[in-house]
Amino acid sequence: MFNKNFKLVITGLIIAYAVYQFIEGNIGNGIFLILLSLIFVFLYFRNEMILLAFLRMRKQDMIGTQKWLDKINNPAAALTQKQQGYFNYLHGIIYSQKNLTEAEKYFKKALKFGLTMDYDVAMAKLSLAGIAMQKRRKREATTLLQEAKKLDKNNMLTEQIKMMQQQMKKI
């Protein structure tokens, strides 16, 4: 919705007005304004459109997810590096059901930009392994599966990894 630099400017202005309120003796207003500025700091690190797209993704609404992602114009300028990673990660998940070549491109971009959570990195590598397996690139799929297994510390993807390893034996 707002450019990332614009969010910082708004935060600076709100904090400056909060300091003015403290000087004037309006402590309650100053505290409220400081808390209000924290919202813009939060939205600097977590883009609101990506958060809304994740909410749509949780409901398995791929069309709604795509609509929220389409509202981000020029992601290179509007998003931080990690946000660009999640932007591409969500696109990869969407395209994994439509076009595997596009999905592979988006997952690789997401890994290049970086993802915050190890689970998300493991999921992206697992998806890339599945794509490589379908394209008959067994060696690449094996290495990606091993990397995903190392990153899956909470054992949330163990069943999917085992299933893919069994399918690899058939190839």
In short:
With 171 residues, the chain is mainly α. It has 10 helices and no strands.
Which labels suit this protein?
single chain, 80% helix, 171 residues, Serine Threonine Protein Phosphatase 5, Tetratricopeptide repeat, 10 helices, 0% strand, mainly alpha
Draw up the topology in text:
Blueprint: H1 4-24, H2 27-45, H3 48-58, H4 62-70, H5 75-78, H6 81-95, H7 100-113, H8 118-134, H9 138-151, H10 158-170
Helix pairs in contact: 1-2, 3-4, 3-6, 4-6, 6-7, 7-8, 8-9, 9-10
How would you sum up this structure, described in words?
There is one protein chain. This protein is mostly helical. The chain folds into two domains: 1-45, no CATH class; 47-170, Alpha Horseshoe (Serine Threonine Protein Phosphatase 5, Tetratricopeptide repeat), CATH 1.25.40. 80% of the residues lie in helices and 0% in strands. It contains ten helices and no strands. It has helices spanning 4-24, 27-45, 48-58, 62-70, 75-78, 81-95, 100-113, 118-134, 138-151, 158-170. Helix 3 runs parallel beside helix 6. It is elongated, with a radius of gyration of 21 Å. The relative contact order is 0.08. The mean pLDDT is 86.
Number of helices: 10
Q: Would you report the number of β strands?
A: 0
CATH fold group of the largest domain = Serine Threonine Protein Phosphatase 5, Tetratricopeptide repeat
Report the span from N to C terminus. Answer: 47 Å
CATH superfamily of the largest domain: Tetratricopeptide repeat domain
Q: Whole-number radius of gyration?
A: 21 Å
Q: List the domain count as a whole number.
A: 2
CATH architecture label name of the largest domain: Alpha Horseshoe
Low-pLDDT ranges: none
Net shape = elongated
User: Can you tell me the CATH class of the largest domain?
Assistant: Mainly Alpha
Helix-strand pattern: HHHHHHHHHH
Strand-residue fraction? under 5%
Largest sheet, in brief, is:
none
- Secondary structure class reads mainly alpha
Rounded mean pLDDT score = 86
Q: Bin the helical content.
A: over 70%
